[in-house]
Amino acid sequence: MKKNIEEINRSIYDFKNTDDYDYKIKKGLTKDIVLEISKRKNDPQWMREIRLEGLGAYNKLDMPTWGPDLSELNMDDISLYVRPKGNMANKWEDVPDDIKNTFDRLGIPESERLSLAGVGAQYDSEVVYHSMKEELSSIGVIYTDMESAVREYPDLVREYFMKVVPVTDHKFISLHAAVWSGGSFVYVPKNVHVQMPLQSYFRLNSPESGQFEHTLIIVDEGASLHFIEGCSAPKYNKYNLHAGCVELYVKKNAYLRYSTIENWSKNMFNLNTKKAIVEQGGTIEWVSGSFGSHISMLYPMSILNGEGAKSEFTGISFAGATQEIDNGCKVVLNAPNTSCVINAKSISKNGGKCTYRSLVRATKNAKGSKASVSCDSLMLDNKSLSDTIPVNDIETSDIEFSHEAKIGKISDKTIFYLMSRGISESEALAMIVRGFAYPVSKELPLEYAVEMNNLINLELEGGM
Predict the structure, then answer these.
(1) Angle 133-287-210 from CA coordinates, rounded to 5°
(2) Which of 199, 358, 210, 320 is nearest to 270 (CA)?
(3) C-alpha angle with apex 52: 48 to 58, nearest 5 degrees?
(4) Into how many domains does the chain fold?
(5) Cβ–Cβ under 8 Å, residues 112 and 131
(6) Window from 3-17, 205-219, 277-291 with minimum mean pLDDT
(7) How far apart are CA 307 and CA 104, in angstroms?
(8) Based on the domain organization, do 386 and 440 belong to the same domain?
(9) Are residues 92 and 116 part of one domain?
(10) Is there a domain that residue 9 lies in?
């Protein structure tokens, strides 16, 4: 891993291609635009009805007023569908050169060869590459893009699509339902253990556009999976919007780890929604690193409906100048002997603002359950802000519950001590921050832990 901040090359993430597309829909949100997207997707009637239901709900629902100020986001300035040139390929050499070079620079092909069982790569509104090792197909694992899943597995998709996250959940999920495009579908059969992770990577290249991928994962009884989601976008001086949706189903005694490294550009509104339903004895683990974006609102939710179901959340957020990162976690303990552990960390510098917002609800059904919440915030200067807004709604007395929160700054004495050992001030600060982030990075596969540390170094660059 590169050790000095100045060694990290920003061009790995900030490069952009010419905005050269096959089709870009006109800006704004109307019924005609939604129907045009549906037509281009060749939707079945039931999917078209979901889109129109989403549009109707979007027009009725209010903008959220309880979090960051979203008044700068004007939907009339956003194109909701951008089709890149070329068709989806299952060989890298068949991907258009400029797009292929983008993912080459991001290291996707190399990761696929070394440590992944399958990869999906989305560029703007469409999946441009998808592949999975043949041995997984032979044992019944399905991993494909969402549009292909709608065509090839319509009954399975229809049973689960927009069921964890209802179309009317909030205004931006209604928008997602109306204009969704791209994303991944995974089904792991009973008692099948996928030994290597699957990964989908989402790259938004076109300015003044939105990305609305839909990820639907079903891990059947006794099965297990690690799924990795990566996201990035280049810098522009105009706003982009990301409002994806992730729906996860963890069946009886199944296991799913969902890891995310987000590195959006600082002109991005990241308004993503993620939810999981966990049945008896199942486990969902969320591992999240949130970097970049102008405003982020993201609260992965676990609904523990089966006895003994478990949820763990480990996440870190980093807010620099002009950034407001409003992230957290939600858990509903809705069965006996369920448990959740939340370990959230945030770092803010140069006037950035981090807010930890959470909900832990233990219903009357949650007898014998356990919940532990820990949220730590680190501010690197006197200009930055950090807030903690937890909500704990406990309806049963038969539960073990703990909550702790710490907000602090790096002491001058600590920096001085490290510098007295021959370490530069910038590297001393980076070492402390990486140590603070270690509980998150240690939960990631090695190459993604290295990427997260590099992102931390990038955020710290020039901030001493």
Answers:
(1) 80
(2) 210
(3) 145
(4) 2
(5) yes
(6) 3-17
(7) 44
(8) no
(9) yes
(10) no
How large is the average pLDDT for residues 266-281? 95
Per residue in 364-404, pLDDT (tens digit) is: 999 999 999 999 998 888 899 999 999 999 999 999 999 98
For residue 166, which of 277, 78, 63, 257 has the smallest C-alpha distance?
A: 277
| 218/357 same-domain check | yes
d(CA 100, CA 331): 39
Range of the domain at 461: 411-464
pTM score: 0.89
Q: In whole angstroms, give the CA distance from residue 228 to residue 256.
A: 11
352 and 436 part of one domain:
no
* 389 found inside a domain: yes
Cα–Cα nearest to 63, from 169, 165, 172: 172
* Domain-located, residue 5: no
| Closest of 140, 137, 160, 179 to residue 40, by C-alpha | 179
- The C-alpha angle with vertex 101 and arms to 96 and 105, in degrees rounded to 5, equals 155
Nearest Cα residue to 303 out of 267, 334, 265: 334
Contact 386, 353 (CB under 8 A): yes
357 and 430 in a common domain: no
Q: Is residue 4 part of a domain?
A: no
Quote the CA–CA distance of 228 and 449 in Å, as a whole number.
Answer: 12
CA distance 160 to 285: 20
